[in-house]
C-alpha cells in the first residue's frame, strides 16, 4: 500500500508543478478468479488482474478528472499534463473542491475485510460442482443454468494535496446457482447465492444449491390474480429495494436539484414511529464496509431514519456545499469523474413480530419474492414494478403467483411499513421481511411483458441504435426488432394459441382465424426514439372478436404504465384514470398536427385550441385517457398496432375512440389499417364529430 501512496503523492506533485492549485488521486488494484460449472461439467475458468488510476485537479473553481490503466512514469506525466490542460478550459463549478481539511480521517478502524488466503481454482471448482450437484439432486429439478464460484481482491489508495493519504484492501468470495423445474411452457427458474469477504464465512455451497432448487420448485404452476388493493409483504430478497429507494431519495445530488419526492421532508416523520434505518460503514467484515469515504472524510454509523423521522441527507463535499451543509462522509469515488454520495452497509432495524406473525391477520395478500423492471419515479415517488411471489390467504402463504404488477406511492408505502424480526446481512443494503398496507396488485401478462421490454428500449435509447428505412420516411432501429423479438417470445410462450400482429413482424393470415390475437407496436414513436426524445412507448393489446380486451402502454423513460382490461377500468401506475369532462372545443387541449386544423378546406375554421404534439399515436391516446389532454385527432391512416392498446385504455377511462365518422374501430382485419382516429370524452367527441363526419377521406 505504501508503494501506491508514494506513486499518488508523486503524481499530485507533478500536477501542482504544472499549475494545479489542488488535486487528489486514487488507484484501484484488483485481481479475480472465477469458474462456471453446468450440468456436471466445468465450462470456464478465468483469471484477471487490473489497475486503474484517476487524477482530479482544481484550478480556481474549475476541475477536471482523467483516468488511466497505464501506470508507467511516462503515461502518468501525460496524465498530469492532460488533466491540468482540461481544467484550464472547463466551465466553473462553484461547488467543486477537495473535502474540508478538518473533516479528513486521521485514524480509522480495522474492519477485517481482507482474507489473506486465496482459494485455488480447484477449490472454486469444488464449490461450484457441489453447489450445482446438490441442486440437481433435488427431485423435480429438470435443468440447470449453471453454478459459479469466484474470489476477488481489491485494494484502493487515496491521496489528496491537503494531506490525506490512506488505503485499504478487501476480498470477496461467492458461490451461486440457477436451476429450472417443469417442462415446455410450464418451466420455472430460481437461484440462490452466498457471498462474504472471507471464504470461511461463505457457508456450505451444497446448502445454497438445495435452497435454489427448493425455491424453484415452489414456483411451479403459478396462478393469476385479479386486480385488487391488498397488503403486500416483501421477502428479504427484495425488501432491501424499499430501503434503497429511500437512499436514492435522500441523495444530496437529488435534493440539490430538487428532483426528490422527499425534498421537503427533513425533520419530518416519513416512516412509522419506532422505525430506524442505519448506514454503518464500520461493520466488521461488512459487505460494503470502508474505513473512510471516497474523499478521505472520516465516516461513521448514522441513523438516516430515527423513530420514523428523516434525520439527514447523504452528502459528499460538493452536494454539501450546494446545500450549505457539511459532508456526511458518504462520498464514493471512481477514477473517471468526481465523487458522488452513496451508502455503505445500509439496513432497516428489525421489528418484533416473526414473519409468520406479520402475515397472520392477512385475509388476502401478496408475498413478493421477485421484482422486475425499474418502475420508480424519484420525483413523485410513484412506484410500479412487475412482480412474482405467492398469494396469502387467511394468514398463510399458499400458491405461487406470476405476471403481476404492484403499485403505490413511496410516500404512503414508507408510512405504512411494518418490519419483521428476521434481518440478515446478506447484501450491501438489507431489510427484514416488510409488510406494506394498501398497495395495488394488478394481474396482467401484458403489463409484465411490456415492462420487461422497457429495459431493452432504455438500453437502446442510451446508446447508438442502428437505424435504417423500411420505406421512404419510415425508419426502424435494431431496438425496434429486439423489443419485437422479446415480446413475441415472452407473450407467445404463455399463449401459444394466440395470433400475432406486429409492426416489425411479417404478417401472416393465420391470425385471422385465431381466437385471440396479440397486436403489438414494439416502439410507437420511433422518430422520437431516434432523436432521443422520451416520448415513445411500447404497446401491446389482446384482441378478441374484433375488439381489444386487454392493453398495456409503457413509456420506459418516464416510467408511465397505462393499462386496461375490458370492463375493469383504466389505470396509470396502478391508479384509476379518466378522461377530462370538457365539452367545448375552444381552449381545449388537443393533440393534433397544426396543419390539419389550419387547412383552408374546412367549412368552418376551428376555434383557438391549445395544440400539442407527440410522435406516438398510442402515447397521445393514453394522455387523453389520463386527462392530460382533452382530445386527439388524426385524419390520416393509422395501423391497428398504433391504436389497439390506446383504444381500450381510452374507452375504459370513459372516453370514445372512433373513426372520424363516429364508426367504431374494428381490429384483426385482413388489411389492418384505419382511415382516421378521434379520441375524447363523450361530450367533446361529439363536438369534434360535428366537424369531421361530413369530410371524405381516402379508403
Question: How would you portray this structure in words?
Answer:
By secondary structure, this protein is α+β, with helices and mostly antiparallel strands. It is 25% helix and 33% strand. It contains 16 helices and 35 strands. The strands form 8 sheets. It has a 7-stranded mixed beta sheet, with helices on both faces. A 6-stranded antiparallel beta sheet has the order 3-2-1-4-5-6. Strands 7-14-15-16-19 form a 5-stranded mixed β-barrel. Helix 1 (2-17) crosses helix 2 (73-89) and helix 10 runs antiparallel to helix 11. It is globular, with a radius of gyration of 29 Å.
Question: What global shape is seen?
Answer: globular
User: Percent of residues in beta strands?
Assistant: 25-35%
Number of helices, where a helix is a run of at least 4 consecutive DSSP H or I residues: 16
Largest sheet: 7 strands, mixed
Helical content, roughly? 25-40%
Task: State the total count of DSSP E strands.
Answer: 35
- What is the CA-CA span between the terminal residues? 77 Å
The low-pLDDT segments are none
Mean pLDDT: 94
Radius of gyration: 29 Å
Class from secondary-structure proportions: alpha+beta
Strand order of the largest sheet: 22-23-24-25-26-27-28
Amino acid at each position: 500500500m505504501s508503494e501506491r501512496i508514494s506513486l499518488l503523492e508523486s503524481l499530485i506533485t507533478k500536477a501542482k508543478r504544472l499549475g494545479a492549485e489542488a488535486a487528489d488521486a486514487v488507484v484501484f488494484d484488483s485481481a479475480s478468479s472465477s469458474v462456471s460449472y453446468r450440468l456436471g461439467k466445468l465450462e470456464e475458468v478465468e483469471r484477471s488482474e487490473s489497475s486503474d488510476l484517476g487524477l482530479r485537479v482544481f484550478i480556481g473553481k474549475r476541475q477536471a478528472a482523467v483516468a488511466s490503466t497505464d501506470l508507467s512514469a511516462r503515461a502518468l506525466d501525460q496524465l498530469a499534463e492532460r488533466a491540468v490542460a482540461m481544467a484550464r478550459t472547463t466551465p466553473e463549478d462553484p461547488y467543486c473542491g477537495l473535502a474540508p481539511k478538518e473533516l479528513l480521517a486521521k485514524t480509522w478502524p480495522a474492519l477485517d475485510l481482507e482474507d489473506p488466503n486465496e482459494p485455488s481454482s480447484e477449490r472454486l471448482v469444488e464449490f461450484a460442482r457441489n453447489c450445482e450437484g446438490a441442486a440437481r439432486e433435488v427431485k423435480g429439478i429438470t435443468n440447470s443454468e449453471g453454478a459459479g464460484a469466484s474470489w476477488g481482491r481489491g485494494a484502493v489508495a487515496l491521496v489528496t494535496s491537503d494531506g490525506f493519504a490512506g488505503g485499504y484492501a478487501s476480498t470477496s468470495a461467492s458461490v451461486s446457482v440457477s436451476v429450472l423445474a417443469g417442462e415446455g411452457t410450464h418451466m420455472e427458474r430460481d437461484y440462490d447465492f452466498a457471498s462474504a469477504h472471507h471464504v470461511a464465512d461463505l457457508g456450505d455451497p451444497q446448502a445454497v444449491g438445495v435452497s435454489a432448487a427448493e425455491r424453484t420448485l415452489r414456483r411451479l404452476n403459478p396462478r393469476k390474480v385479479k386486480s385488487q388493493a391488498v397488503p403486500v409483504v416483501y421477502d428479504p430478497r427484495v425488501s432491501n429495494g424499499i430501503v434503497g429507494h429511500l437512499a436514492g431519495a435522500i441523495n444530496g445530488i437529488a435534493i440539490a436539484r430538487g428532483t426528490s419526492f422527499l425534498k421537503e421532508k427533513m425533520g419530518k416523520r416519513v416512516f412509522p414511529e419506532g422505525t430506524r434505518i442505519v448506514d454503518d460503514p464500520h461493520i466488521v467484515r461488512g459487505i460494503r464496509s470502508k474505513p473512510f469515504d471516497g474523499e478521505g472524510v472520516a465516516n461513521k454509523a448514522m441513523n438516516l431514519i430515527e423513530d420514523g423521522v428523516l434525520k439527514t441527507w447523504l452528502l459528499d463535499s460538493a452536494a454539501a456545499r450546494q446545500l450549505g451543509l457539511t459532508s456526511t462522509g458518504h462520498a464514493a469515488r471512481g477514477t473517471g469523474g468526481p465523487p458522488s454520495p452513496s451508502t455503505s452497509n445500509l439496513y432497516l432495524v428489525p421489528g418484533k413480530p416473526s414473519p409468520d406473525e406479520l402475515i397472520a391477520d392477512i385475509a388476502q395478500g401478496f408475498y413478493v419474492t421477485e421484482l422486475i423492471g425499474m418502475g420508480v419515479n424519484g420525483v413523485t415517488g410513484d412506484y410500479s414494478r412487475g412482480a412474482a411471489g405467492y398469494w396469502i390467504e387467511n394468514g398463510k402463504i399458499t400458491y405461487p403467483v406470476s405476471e403481476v404488477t404492484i403499485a403505490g406511492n413511496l410516500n404512503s408505502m414508507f408510512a405504512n411499513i411494518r418490519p419483521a424480526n428476521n434481518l440478515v446481512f446478506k447484501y450491501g443494503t438489507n431489510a427484514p421481511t416488510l409488510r406494506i398496507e394498501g398497495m395495488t396488485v394488478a394481474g396482467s401478462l401484458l403489463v409484465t411483458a411490456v415492462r420487461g421490454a422497457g429495459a431493452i428500449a432504455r438500453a437502446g435509447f442510451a446508446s447508438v441504435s442502428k437505424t435504417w428505412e423500411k420505406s421512404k420516411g419510415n425508419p426502424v432501429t435494431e431496438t425496434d426488432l429486439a423489443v419485437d423479438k422479446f415480446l413475441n417470445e415472452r407473450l407467445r410462450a404463455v399463449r401459444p394459441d394466440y395470433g400475432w400482429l406486429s409492426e416489425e413482424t411479417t404478417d401472416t393470415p393465420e391470425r385471422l382465424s385465431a381466437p385471440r390475437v396479440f397486436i403489438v407496436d414494439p416502439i410507437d414513436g420511433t422518430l422520437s426514439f431516434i432523436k432521443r426524445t422520451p416520448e415513445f412507448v411500447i404497446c401491446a393489446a389482446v384482441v378478441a372478436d374484433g375488439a381489444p380486451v386487454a392493453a398495456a402502454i409503457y413509456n420506459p423513460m418516464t416510467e408511465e404504465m397505462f393499462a386496461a382490461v375490458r370492463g375493469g377500468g383504466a389505470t396509470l401506475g396502478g391508479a384509476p384514470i379518466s378522461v377530462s369532462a370538457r365539452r367545448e372545443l375552444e381552449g381545449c387541449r388537443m393533440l393534433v398536427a397544426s396543419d390539419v386544423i389550419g387547412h383552408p378546406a374546412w367549412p368552418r375554421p376551428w376555434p383557438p385550441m391549445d395544440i400539442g404534439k407527440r410522435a406516438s399515436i398510442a402515447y397521445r391516446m393514453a394522455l387523453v385517457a389520463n386527462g392530460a389532454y382533452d382530445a386527439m385527432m388524426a385524419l390520416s391512416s393509422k395501423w391497428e398496432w398504433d391504436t389497439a392498446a390506446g383504444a381500450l385504455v381510452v374507452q375504459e377511462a370513459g372516453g370514445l375512440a372512433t373513426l372520424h365518422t363516429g364508426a367504431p374501430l374494428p381490429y384483426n382485419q385482413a388489411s389492418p389499417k384505419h382511415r382516421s382516429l378521434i379520441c375524447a370524452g363523450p361530450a367533446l367527441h361529439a363536438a369534434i364529430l360535428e366537424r369531421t363526419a361530413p369530410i371524405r377521406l381516402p379508403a
